[in-house]
């Protein structure tokens, strides 16, 4: 039935007949599935109701008063009828673009059901697929659907329901249900659509209505035959099918207007622009080519198709990017067209990640997702990102300092061997955006930056659209164009992992000067004003111990105190450090002394005069009884051995540069590094001369690698330079910068932290942002942490099984549990 909401909102109302009646529990279970299903290729449930009336009915020969229940479902109105009606239309065979769009839409809807909601439809057929005004297919009628639990892959039932001809053989024979049951029904549906008849598909009659020279037709025939294999193990998954569709689309010639001629796009995903000068006209579509289908599936399909279909390649593309070029049109036509050359050697050195941005929607909440572009070539690369739909910017956009071109597109030049991280943000809204958003990504490789800057001028003046004229212009400048497509989709809200806060009410963070974290116990060591050192349990928010470090009054300090030049009010304890294996902690002070205490007995273990300046830096060797000490102003770094009665072992001259950070190498513990305001130096403990010097670097941190390569991450020492947004990764053996990381939307990167035993990197931005990176060679941005206070420092603690990032703020400590499954995604 047709109904109305308001004055003009049409809806479809379905009244369940008596034969459709199910138990109240089953009805509610089905509703729970339908309510959460939201996808553009699935008919949307708008509401439901049921009513109970008392009626006189005849029962066992007698008239009784009984409760009669009626149930109603309210769906969005879909005006163009069912796919069954469309197939019977004798004219539909002339509209291959529409036919392909329908197949693609059904597959995307089924992918959502299987992979996002774990729902098997179990009655997929043309009658249960509706078409909207634009012929977009929408799956409907979930009366037989089943929800699969976590880890569940099949269901055995004794009740056989469904539609003969579309029901999988294992269901009919053994009552076995799985996602592969839907795949069989999908194959039959595609075959009937290709045949152009609702009769049982006749494979011999394909050639009469289809052009087998079209790659899309070949792909769809291949998919359909794989789906209807009697052995469910040989059928592809819906993910395989989507990948096959996307992969074959990259082989289609996409024609664009160059010389004033009209467009003739053979791909259904290409929307025709209203004018040639429309900055948002899209003539390029790309997605990753499919993964390799199983050998059994290939062999089973080869028995049914001719040589033309067998020649189709199902190999996976080694890169998500494809190179595109411009070629002349065919004979009798003018102008040029874009053609994909597939993945090339250059494409393999470029990376866009992820290809699907998943937004866990929550009403009226700002949602962010990271996106990373990597250039591992020795050439500069300009990347251009633009949505395929101009309306996308109304709800999804990039947070960045990109050079914006139009409402929602951006252009940025990347240096050779560099990575750029960006933040895509979904604005606060209710309800969620309905359609999947797609962003076109072009990565333009040039021999130098000058042609890219010249190209940028064209983009600024809107002289080029993202069509064959752009590709042609790039090739005239001696460059290459590589492209990818990124989708932004809505998914269910994630399970919230709340960051732990350490903020005891009795602790005043304004008086905290230095903090250290115990490697195994849930303890934080703090140095406070007035010489107080305390240990806190960050899980229970309780203090474990408190100790007052007393000043050593030497004749020199007493003399200065008597003259009024110094007092205990200006005396501080600096840089406390756990020495966990001894159950000690060490701390420096204003007078240049180092004191070591037992945190179990609170007794002083030792003390010694280390420098004439305040000892502001301590660094404990991970395995040996060695301690490095340094000051901010003194040029000397000193090495001490506490097992030899605090014997002075060696000293290292930083050449008039004080130190700001000391660290031991994570693999070779005979090596350490010192960081000053203008350089980073690497030392071997048996030598007084640095083995490497990185000039112009600051805030260094050793980067753990899964190879024997010695890498260090640094920041530029001059925030006024053009590299103020980047951090550099250095090879310490060659003293060369091998890669750079850039980040948009988080301000200037002003601090870094690396995990000592895992390839994970954290960067801190001036915009109160901490970003987590997968520090393997792809250098992908994986997570963004927005904070409400200024970040003062960061430190990784833990092993692969339990890793946490401690973020020290002005008024609290935030403890972020690191999910390595999220941070270290598969490359």
TrEMBL record:
One Pfam family here: Pkinase
InterPro entries: Ig-like_fold (IPR013783), Kinase-like_dom_sf (IPR011009), PapD-like_sf (IPR008962), Prot_kinase_dom (IPR000719), Ser/Thr_kinase_AS (IPR008271), WD40/YVTN_repeat-like_dom_sf (IPR015943), WD40_repeat_dom_sf (IPR036322), WD40_rpt (IPR001680)
Record field: transmembrane: none
Gene3D superfamilies from the UniProt entry: Immunoglobulins (2.60.40.10), Transferase(Phosphotransferase) domain 1 (1.10.510.10), YVTN repeat-like/Quinoprotein amine dehydrogenase (2.130.10.10)
GO molecular function, one term: protein kinase activity
PROSITE patterns cross-referenced by the UniProt entry: PROTEIN_KINASE_DOM, PROTEIN_KINASE_ST
Span of domain Protein kinase: 1-252
PANTHER family linked: C2 CALCIUM/LIPID-BINDING PLANT PHOSPHORIBOSYLTRANSFERASE FAMILY PROTEIN, PROTEIN KINASE DOMAIN-CONTAINING PROTEIN
The protein's name: Protein kinase domain-containing protein
């Amino acid at each position: 039935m047709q109904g109305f909401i308001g004055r003009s909102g049409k809806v479809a109302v379905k009244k369940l007949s008596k034969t459709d009646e199910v138990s109240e529990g089953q009805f509610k279970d089905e509703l729970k599935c339908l309510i959460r299903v939201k996808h553009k290729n699935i008919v949307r449930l708008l509401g439901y109701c049921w009513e109970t009336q008392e009626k006189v009915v005849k029962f066992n020969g007698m008239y009784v008063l009984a409760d009669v229940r009626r149930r109603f479902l309210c769906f969005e109105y879909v005006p163009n009828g069912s796919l069954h009606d469309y197939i019977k239309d004798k004219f539909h065979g002339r509209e291959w673009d529409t036919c392909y769009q329908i197949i693609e839409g059904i597959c995307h809807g089924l992918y959502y059901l299987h992979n996002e909601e774990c729902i098997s439809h179990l009655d997929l057929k043309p009658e249960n697929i509706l078409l909207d005004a634009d012929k977009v297919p929408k799956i409907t009628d979930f009366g037989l659907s089943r929800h699969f639990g976590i880890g569940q892959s099949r269901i055995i039932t004794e009740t056989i329901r469904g539609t003969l001809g579309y029901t999988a053989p294992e269901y009919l024979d053994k009552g076995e249900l799985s996602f592969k049951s839907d795949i069989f029904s999908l194959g039959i549906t595609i075959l009937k659509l290709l045949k152009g008849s609702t009769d049982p598909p006749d494979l011999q009659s394909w050639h009469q209505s289809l052009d087998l020279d079209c790659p899309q037709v070949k792909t769809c025939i291949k998919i359909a035959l794989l789906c209807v294999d009697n052995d469910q193990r040989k059928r592809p998954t819906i993910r395989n099918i989507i990948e096959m569709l996307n992969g074959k689309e990259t082989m289609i010639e996409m024609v664009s207007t160059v010389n004033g001629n009209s467009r003739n796009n053979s791909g259904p995903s290409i929307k025709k622009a209203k004018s040639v000068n429309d900055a948002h006209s899209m003539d390029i579509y790309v997605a990753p080519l499919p993964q390799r289908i199983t050998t059994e599936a290939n062999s089973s399909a080869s028995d049914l198709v001719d040589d033309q279909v067998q020649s189709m390649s199902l190999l996976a593309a080694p890169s998500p990017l494809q190179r595109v070029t411009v070629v002349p049109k065919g004979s009798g036509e003018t102008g040029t067209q874009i053609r994909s050359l597939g993945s090339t050697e250059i494409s393999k050195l470029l990376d866009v990640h992820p290809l699907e941005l998943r937004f866990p929607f929550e009403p009226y909440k700002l949602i962010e997702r990271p996106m990373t572009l990597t250039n591992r070539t020795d050439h500069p690369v300009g990347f251009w990102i633009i949505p395929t739909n101009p309306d996308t910017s109304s709800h999804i956009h990039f947070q960045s300092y990109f050079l914006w071109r139009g409402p929602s597109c951006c252009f940025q030049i990347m240096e050779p061997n560099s990575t750029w991280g960006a933040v895509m943000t979904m604005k606060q809204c209710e309800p969620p955006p309905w359609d999947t958003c797609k962003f076109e990504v072009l990565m333009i490789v040039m021999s130098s930056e000058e042609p890219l800057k010249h190209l940028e001028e064209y983009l600024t003046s809107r002289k080029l659209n993202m069509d064959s004229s752009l590709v042609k212009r790039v090739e005239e400048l001696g460059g290459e164009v590589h492209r990818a497509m990124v989708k932004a989709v809505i998914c269910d809200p994630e399970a919230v992992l709340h960051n732990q806060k350490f903020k005891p009410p009795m602790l005043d963070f304004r008086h905290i000067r230095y903090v250290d974290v115990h490697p195994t116990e849930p303890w934080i060591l703090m140095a406070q004003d007035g010489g107080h050192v305390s240990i806190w349990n960050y899980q229970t928010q309780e203090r474990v111990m408190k100790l007052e470090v007393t000043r050593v009054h030497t004749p020199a300090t007493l003399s200065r105190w008597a003259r009024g030049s110094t007092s205990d009010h200006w005396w501080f304890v600096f840089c406390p450090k756990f020495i966990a294996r001894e159950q000690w902690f060490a701390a420096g002070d204003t007078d240049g002394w180092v004191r070591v205490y037992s945190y179990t007995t609170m007794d002083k273990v030792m003390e010694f005069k280390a420098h004439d300046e305040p000892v502001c830096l301590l660094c404990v060797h991970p395995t040996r009884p060695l301690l490095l000490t340094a000051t901010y102003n003194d040029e000397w770094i000193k090495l001490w051995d506490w097992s030899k009665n605090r014997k002075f072992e060696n000293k290292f001259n930083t050449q008039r540069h004080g130190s700001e950070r000391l660290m031991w190498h994570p693999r070779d513990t005979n090596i350490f590094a010192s960081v000053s305001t203008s350089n980073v130096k690497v030392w071997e403990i048996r030598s007084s001369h640095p083995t490497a010097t990185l000039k112009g670097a600051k805030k260094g941190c050793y980067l753990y690698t899964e190879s024997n390569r010695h890498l260090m991450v640094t920041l530029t020492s001059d925030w006024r330079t053009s590299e103020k947004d980047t951090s550099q990764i250095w090879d310490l053996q060659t003293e060369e910068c091998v890669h750079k990381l850039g980040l948009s939307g988080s301000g200037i990167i002003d601090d870094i932290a690396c995990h000592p035993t895992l390839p994970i990197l954290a960067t801190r931005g001036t915009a109160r942002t901490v970003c987590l990176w997968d520090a393997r060679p792809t250098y992908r941005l994986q997570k963004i942490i927005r904070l409400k206070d200024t970040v003062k420092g960061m430190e990784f603690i833990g092993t692969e099984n339990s890793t946490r990032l401690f973020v020290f703020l002005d008024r609290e400590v935030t403890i972020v549990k690191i999910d390595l499954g999220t941070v270290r995604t598969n490359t």
